[in-house]
Amino acid sequence: MSTVVAPSTMRVTSARRRTVTRAAIFVAMVIMAIVMLYPFFVMLIDSFKTENQYLAGHGTSTQSWHQLTTTMPVYQQLLNSTIVCTASIAIILVVGVMAGFAFAKLQYRFGNLVFLGMVSAMMVPLQAILIPEYVNVAKFGLTNGYLGAVLVYAALGTPFAIFLFTTYFRRVPDELIEAGICDGLGYWGVLWRLALPMALPAIATVTVLQFIQIWDDLLVGLLFLQNPAERPITVGLAALAAGRTTSIPQLMAGSLVSALPAMIVYLGFQRFLVRGLTLGIDR
Amino acid sequence: MTTSPTLSLADAPRRARRPSTSLLTRRRRRVGVLLTVPAFVLVGLLIVYPIGQAIYYSMTYWDGLTTTWVGPSTWWQALNNPTMWRALENNALLLLSVPFALAIPLAVAVMLHQRVAGWKVFRSIYFLPTAISWVVIGLVAEHFFAYSGTLNSLLGHVGLSHVHTDMLGSESTALIALGITFVFSTIGTNTMIFLTGLATLDTSLEEAARIDGAGSWRIFRHITLPHLSRFIQLAFVMTVISAFSALFSLIFVMTGGGPGYSTTTMEFLVYQTGFNQSQFGTAALYGLILFFITAVVGIVQLRLIGAKD
What we know:
The complex is a heterodimer. Chain A is mainly alpha-helical. Chain A has 2 domains: 2-47; 66-278, MetI-like fold (Orthogonal Bundle). Chain A contains 14 helices and no strands. In chain A, α3 packs across α13, α4 (74-105) packs parallel to α7 (147-169) and α12 runs antiparallel to α13 (248-268). Chain A starts with a helix and ends in a 5-residue tail after the last helix. Chain B is mostly helical. Chain B has helices at residues 12-16, 23-57, 73-79, 82-95, 98-113, 119-127, 134-145, 150-157, 174-199, 203-211, 216-227, 229-245, 248-254, 266-276, 280-308; strands at 60-62, 67-69. Chain B has a two-stranded antiparallel sheet with strand order 1-2. In chain B, β1 (60-62) and β2 (67-69) form a beta hairpin. The two termini of chain B are 30 Å apart. The interface between A and B is large, with 95 and 94 residues.
């Protein structure tokens, strides 16, 4: 009798312990969620206050939102961010796809060496070459207009894109390419019609990663877009904050506006981000 | 090379017409070269060439208008500059936050991996700050740590109103506030890395250990943690490199490098020296030192990954 009861009570206690553990985990995750959502709470709550309400700690108002466009040319800055992101990503994709295809499938002398050099360029932080970079871009008068910043972003993003595309194109079977050549497609045709469709997930990953990276960046926009009318929104926000004269509720409203596009892209394409981050070890 | 040792110049053209380099192969190679040219030019001109320029600039005195060649002695001057050592010290101190930037995400990832109710929602919430700019995080953090900010009102709520902190305003605590913000900013990415690692873990191994009577901690210590080692390495290297080269936005918004030089890191010093003090030569040199440090970290990473493959 006792031999029958003992295991069943054990099972009951272990099941109960399991429930308690899972409940504890759930509580811990809720607390963690509050911590991680804290910036969003702050932006939302504080942006719906006037400066006096913010200092007093209570009350709500939509005043900061109404005044936001006079403090910060929000629409122009959103447009600037969009232009810079789109142009940079377009260059990164075109240049990266071509080079990735060449490194993976069109082996030529020293090709592997060039590939290695490209991948190593991923390791160079912009700050390390900031001074000569700025001097060069300024020398060509490119700190006015979008082109300077676009080229810098494109150069910074290209090495990783090449790495990703090369890894993807290596999976395309050689036979498929040979068949395409025999059918008279030529290498261009093979690249655009056969290889490219297979690399669509990689294209999505690069686009999403670079969009968030460039949209959120400060340093390049701050230095390489000297004309205030061409400032991206993140730079505009940082410039306002550095001035230390803008009211906090308005800064929070501006923060929320600047954060929204990247958040939407992130929520919509989460899985491509994860893939890009862990590529190279997860195979 | 199958050519005979008595190879003469006259043989050269014949060698080029070897059957192995057929017309098709040569065309393939030519297209290959052509397709790499744009990337080569872009990366070469905007990333590789400036490294060479930086070496030259680092040996000049340059106030933004006139450049004077000085030579390698500039390096000795820089190495005797206390501000640079202060910046390096700040970088070293910031590295103390790396264990937290790994341990917290590891705990979070393990919790998520238990798949309790709503774990997918929690996962999205934890990753969400990854999408927003460190400019925005810095702005929020600044008002969290400020004298009239959230931290002090929280302390007040728990009956500690006499402890009135001003973390960003004091030389001794500003770096700590920066470090905490940095850890917060890395949680999303590192959790993502660890969660991917956990997803590749063979659950039957855990089951077997559990049946054998191993406790949760022993399973974590002896099965989960060793399995995650590569992912921990990746997260470690990425976090260290970020600590050296991604804090610019946070520093710019939160402290501007101050008070004094208490939150000036190497990357911020490059910016300050170049663009606030117009000492382009010295700034280029600081950039090279920064490059050297991140390159060492990167090479260590490549060796670690290479050793595994």
